[in-house]
Amino acid sequence: MSDPNHRLAVRQTKTDTGKVKEILDDLRPDMLKHYEAAVAGLCEMETKVRQTLNAAGVHTIRYVPYLNYARQLCRLSRQQGISGESFAMVAKVLLDKRAARAGTHPRRVTRVARGRVPSIESAPTP
Prior knowledge:
Blueprint: H1 4-14, H2 17-55, H3 63-78, H4 84-100, H5 106-116
Helix pairs in contact: 2-3, 2-5, 3-4, 3-5, 4-5
């Protein structure tokens, strides 16, 4: 396929806006369902993390690093499908990273992981 004119013709055929719009219009309902399910799970997880932090007496301005930690764990477990021993090792690395940062308390980070993030059977301890 060294002919540039042929490559251009193939590219234009693949990216015909009418065809692309048809395909996306067909996929849109399923895409919306998938997005709604993902957002609902994320919002539920974040609400539980906020409740855990509120019960621990953490001021709301300090929620961000804990929420980011929980989001990372959630992303690893759901989107990347990591589980078991591999997940525990990654969670430990993230815990160490979060604990080393100013403004986060290792026990609170562990509480967030243990009680509030789906698919964590045993989060690492600091």
